[in-house]
Specification:
There is one protein chain. The N and C termini lie far apart (about 75 Å). About 50% of the residues lie in helices and about 15% in strands. Among the domains are: about 1-55, no CATH class; about 310-395, Distorted Sandwich (Calcium-transporting ATPase, cytoplasmic transduction domain A), CATH 2.70.150; about 480-515 and about 630-750, Rossmann fold (3-Layer(aba) Sandwich), CATH 3.40.50.1000; about 520-625, 3-Layer(aba) Sandwich (Calcium-transporting ATPase, cytoplasmic domain N). Helix 26 links the parallel strand 26 (about 715) and strand 27.
């Protein structure tokens, strides 16, 4: 019997033997007592006062889940909630555990219909993140979370680490359910074989009844243990007044189970426990295959948020540097960025001079010299020296943050292949339920038993197992075959958007080119190469590292070395002065550049390469041309894509004259080669092109990421920036861009196979429904025929040549 006394620390009921009369503070165990004393000793006793305020006036917790009162705490709001100052509306994102298909999106996005004060609920299926907008004056976030929990989806704060742990737990539970369902199905099928054999060979009544009862126990356990997820989905759909594929599944399971149990107890008629257990097993496998794709997409998208550091070195008014979580950094603060670190904010450099790698936004590998007064963006890498930055924008407000949000938004806009099934789900569910009711009405005048029998046969034979499995099964097979061809696909849902040829847009740096600086040519005195390599070996600058790699390491030591930001390097060895850098450096140290080397340097710059002048004492003796060379297969790829009917263009952040030179070498139309493109410019270009037809975007940098997500189909190169890999629908393994034409061909074939599978499934259901309504099919025959459509889909998927070896 409960005492009615609750623990001061955890809130649980205190056992009768531990209640101390007359004391205000009561504890359910010594651990809670110790934790309470520790909290008070640390001066954190206000924790209990805050909790009491949160408890005041709240309703009893629902039996279906948590109270989620932590979502109303000030600490949670400070980190996760944003309030619009103009409208007063609050918004935040929560990670939902348990979403598995596009129908779940329908359920979650209709929560505003049952929660007064909730303005909008938008679910990102790939990442299982729901974005909520609500009026804080009318409803608490905890109340919204409890409403979502009542639909079967548990809410969690959007922490990267916790999301991964929750997903691992969810995957483990799904596999355990599949294993249990498989065990039930296997044993039920063994008993069914014995019962069917007994119909012909004979079986004594006692054995037959025992087998039926054992099968019934297995069926009941299968339905109410691993199969309960279908009933949860159906009940949630009823609450939100939406159609869901779980509805006919749950009805078929319930009717089949009830009829089977009744017939088993009566020892008359047929039982369907083998079909029921196998149905649960097959559907759980299909759902798991579907979730695997979503998990891969969610894991990849998490890489987006690793582009900026989770903390920053904040400099206070007294010059003291302390580390702060990025959530605690606001505009107006001064942030120190050390060499090798990423800039955590958008802002202006207020002190220091350094080289910056801005490829995260521009896609170009050339470092840029930056000093006081120059603007930097979050994600930029500081290469050489510490700088201090005045923060102007943080988090979502930074330029990189906006790009990341664009990626998420465009990813939600994609129409997945599973939409083929979900777009017809409402009509299918309504049709099956309606036909079952009509069948019951037609046969009812002839007796309740035949009416229930034929209606049950229709529900069993028209179960949407194949419809639910068709797309995940076909795409899983296609993805596996593509992987063997060197292409990893995580967004097969966009295949349907590129079934007809359109425009292929290629990034230049890292896509058409190798994406790395190399010494392409050396003109002049070869003897100074090891000397220059030794001079540049200690620098972290990409150009210096490239020159250092031109020669093997030699025991050459310089007396002094002067690295000049934006110019080059000067050093003294054995009384001789050596210098390497730009024409501006030569002018600064009083070295004239002969016309021969000046012409070579001008020609190299015109080709988009970087000329580096080499001087010894007061004379230029050599010229190194550094650059990013074209991939050898690039020209052939452009020709093959053109033969397939695709137009080919270039989107690059590099200079227009450089892009024009590359386009001319590859035979690309000048009007389709665009340079100087920012990430926002690439999004605009892709949007403009999509208005005229399908667009495939191929890139490898963060500046390509939003365009990859916005395109009809995005392809990234392995080894590229993590954001591009996360945003793309597929990425190419290895260093061979030549698989791109085969990828586009395979995408079209996969969509065709999906459509054939869905047509076969629907056609089968149409014929089977007619036979069941006509009374031709008995429940026993329906149980035999039920797996036929699933087997048909399996055969179609396995025999399809989606990504053939000869491509």
């Amino acid at each position: 019997m409960e005492t009615g006394v609750h623990c001061t620390h955890c809130g649980l009921v205190v056992p009768r033997g531990l209640v101390e009369p007359g004391r205000d503070e009561q504890f359910c165990c010594n651990a809670c007592h110790t934790a309470h004393e520790a909290i008070k000793a640390c001066g954190l006793g206000a924790y209990y006062e805050l909790r009491e305020k949160l408890d005041a006036g709240s309703k009893p917790a629902r039996s279906t889940g948590s109270r989620y009162e932590e979502f109303d705490a000030e600490a949670f709001w400070r980190v996760h909630v944003r309030v619009n100052e103009e409208t007063g509306l609050a918004s935040c994102e929560l990670y939902l555990e348990g979403v598995h298909c596009a129908a779940c999106v329908w359920l979650v996005e209709r929560v505003p219909q049952i929660v007064d004060g909730l303005i909008e609920s938008r679910l990102d299926l790939g990442r299982s993140l729901v974005r909520l907008t609500w009026d804080p004056d009318r409803v608490k976030l905890s109340e919204v979370a409890r409403a979502i929990d009542s639909l079967g989806y548990r809410s969690h704060p959007p922490s990267r680490g916790s999301q991964r742990a929750i997903r691992r737990q969810s995957d483990r539970r799904a596999l355990i359910r599949i294993g249990i369902a498989g065990a039930f199905a296997g044993n039920a099928m063994l008993l069914a074989v014995a019962l069917y054999a007994g119909m012909f060979e004979g079986m004594d009544a006692g054995t037959k009844m025992a087998f039926r009862l054992i099968s019934g126990a297995l069926g009941i356990l299968s339905v109410f243990w691993p199969g309960r997820v279908f009933f949860q989905g159906a009940l949630a759909a009823i609450r939100t007044r939406t159609w869901h594929l779980d509805m006919p599944i749950a009805l078929a399971l319930a009717v089949g189970l009830v009829v089977g149990v009744v017939n088993a107890m009566r020892d008359a008629g047929e039982v369907y426990f083998d079909s029921i257990t196998m149905l649960v097993f097959l559907l759980l496998i299909g759902r798991w295959l579907q979730q695997r794709g979503q998990r891969a997409a969610a894991d990849a998208l998490e890489l987006l948020f690793a582009l900026t550091p989770a903390s920053a070195h904040v400099v206070d008014d007294e010059g003291v540097v302390r580390d702060e979580p990025i959530e605690g950094v606001t505009s107006g603060m001064h942030v120190e960025v050390l060499a090798g670190e990423s800039v955590p904010v958008d802002g202006v450099i207020v002190s220091g001079t350094s080289h910056m790698d801005q490829s995260v936004m521009t896609g170009e590998a050339r470092p840029v010299a930056m000093a006081q007064g120059d603007r930097v963006t979050a994600g930029t890498v500081n290469l050489s020296a510490p700088v201090r930055v005045l923060a102007e924008a943080v988090g979502d407000q930074t330029r990189l943050g906006q790009v990341m949000r664009d990626i998420e938004r465009h990813a939600r806009e994609q129409t997945p292949v599973i939409g083929h099934a979900n777009r017809i789900a409402g009509a299918f569910v309504a049709a099956v339920l309606g036909l079952a009711g009509i069948t019951l009405a037609i046969w009812l005048p002839r007796g309740i038993e035949p009416a229930i029998g034929h209606a049950t046969a229709l529900l069993i034979v028209c179960c949407p197992c194949a419809l639910a499995m068709a797309t995940p099964l076909v795409t899983a097979v296609a993805v596996g075959r593509a992987a063997r061809r060197g292409v990893l696909i995580k967004g097969a849902g966009a295949f349907e958007d590129i079934t007809t040829p359109g425009l292929v847009l290629l990034d230049k740096t890292g896509t058409l080119t190798r994406g790395e600086f190399r010494c392409l040519r050396w003109t002049g005195d070869e003897s100074v190469r090891p000397v220059i390599a030794a001079l540049e070996r200690g620098s972290q600058h990409p150009i210096a590292q490239t020159l250092a790699e031109c020669e093997a390491e030699t025991p050459i030591e310089f007396v002094e070395i002067d690295h000049r930001v934006g110019l080059g390097a000067v050093g003294v060895m054995e009384g001789e002065r050596y210098a390497t850098g730009s024409a501006a450096l030569m002018s600064a140290i009083g070295v004239s550049v002969p016309s021969e080397f000046a012409d070579y340097a001008r020609d190299a710059a015109r080709e988009g390469h970087t000329p580096i002048l080499i001087a010894r004492d007061d004379k230029v003796v050599a010229l190194a041309v550094l650059g990013d060379e074209l991939r050898p297969e690039a020209e052939g790829i452009v020709r093959r894509l053109g033969a397939m009917g695709w137009r080919v263009g270039i989107l690059s952040g590099d200079r227009q004259d450089v892009v024009d030179a590359v386009a001319a070498r590859l035979g690309i139309e000048p009007g389709l080669a665009r340079g100087g493109m920012s990430p926002e410019g690439k999004i605009a270009a892709v949007t403009e092109a999509k208005a005229e037809g399908p667009v495939v975007m191929v890139g490898d940098g963060v500046n390509d990421a939003a365009a990859l997500a916005k395109a009809s189909f995005g392809v990234a190169l392995q080894g590229g920036a993590e954001a591009s890999l996360a945003a793309a629908h597929a990425y190419i393994v290895g260093d061979d861009l030549g698989v791109l034409p085969g990828l586009l061909t395979g995408a079209g074939r996969t969509v065709s196979v999906v459509k054939r599978s869905l047509a076969a499934s629907l056609g089968y259901n149409l014929v089977a429904a007619g036979l069941a309504m006509a009374g031709v099919l008995t429940p026993l025959v329906a149980a035999f025929l039920m797996p036929v459509s699933s087997l048909t889909v399996l055969v179609i998927a396995l025999r399809a040549r989606t990504f053939a070896a000869e491509q």
